[in-house]
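User: tokens in, sequence out, please.
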């Protein structure tokens, strides 16, 4: 499938950073509710959010009453919806939310009113100098048009990442949005355990990263940072010998020493005559750099045409 390049929206980080930062914290609150409401799944796959035709969702979460519910961002309607299987609904307008503390208060009040009270640890993760959600009156800027553009960007990235994932028959994650850094990710596994992860992440206990990286991976996705229009990324854990020196495609891709990842500017993909082909070349070449150098059983793990 070749999708017109016009479908990939322009969204410079410098222009939407305040909205991005506010949205990240909102999704962290929603994601923490999902963690509290669902049983643990490999590598915290019970934590991420998923794309819908209108925004993002937790998917169904159970309640001891026999009901289930989801929390959905509807970026077309500029609204957050709590949808319950008994037909009950609570909603509020995103752009009318004063700040992160107000979002937290409104959402918890909606859950309380539905008989779905869900305590969470109310502190952001993966962020230095984190302010507890109920106290955060700093992050208050939110532009619904920019959030909608971000979602449109994710729709395109999701489609190509799904195509890439379909080429692999081994253990692989869904394409999902991790709210710690607001990145859309997809991960492949060799099937072998990995050495214990020892790096530290702000406001994340060591058990979080030990579970996330318990097995050998090649992971990729889109991150709306650090500058430009964000980057597509690809990394391996543990990093095999000579990985960072591997030749990858397209020419604009490079290994970022500070991130420990291969990166490809989103703008390179967006402005290409064939964005899908450029992104797939990056995903495939960086995966091969990891799988070949780490001696994965590629014959068993990859789908053959």
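Assistant: Sequence out:
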């Amino acid at each position: 499938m070749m999708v017109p390049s016009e479908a990939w929206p322009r969204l410079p980080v410098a222009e939407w950073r305040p909205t991005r930062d506010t949205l990240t914290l909102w999704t962290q609150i929603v994601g923490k509710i999902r963690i509290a409401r669902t049983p643990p799944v490999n590598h915290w796959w019970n934590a991420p959010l998923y794309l819908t035709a209108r925004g993002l969702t937790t998917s169904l979460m159970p309640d001891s009453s026999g009901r289930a519910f989801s929390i959905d961002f509807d970026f077309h309607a500029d609204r957050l919806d709590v949808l319950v299987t008994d037909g009950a609904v609570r909603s509020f307008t995103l752009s009318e939310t004063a700040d992160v503390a107000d979002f937290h208060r409104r959402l918890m009040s909606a859950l309380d009113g539905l008989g779905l009270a869900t305590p969470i640890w109310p502190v952001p993760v993966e962020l230095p100098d984190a302010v507890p959600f109920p106290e955060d009156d700093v992050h208050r800027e939110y532009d619904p048009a920019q959030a909608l553009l971000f979602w449109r960007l994710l729709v395109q990235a999701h489609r190509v990442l799904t195509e890439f994932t379909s080429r692999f028959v081994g253990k692989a994650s869904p394409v999902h949005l991790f709210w710690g850094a607001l990145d859309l990710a997809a991960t492949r596994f060799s099937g072998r355990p990995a050495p214990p992860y020892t790096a530290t992440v702000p406001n994340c206990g060591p058990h979080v990263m030990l579970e996330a990286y318990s097995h050998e991976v090649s992971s990729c996705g889109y991150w709306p940072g650090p500058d430009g229009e964000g980057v597509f990324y690809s990394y391996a854990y543990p990093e095999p010998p000579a990985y960072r020196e591997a030749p990858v495609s397209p020419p604009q891709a490079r290994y970022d020493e500070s991130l420990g990842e291969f990166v490809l500017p989103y703008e390179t993909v967006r402005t290409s005559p064939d964005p899908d082909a450029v992104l797939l070349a990056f995903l495939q070449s960086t995966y091969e750099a990891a799988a070949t150098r780490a001696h994965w059983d590629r014959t068993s793990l990859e789908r053959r045409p």
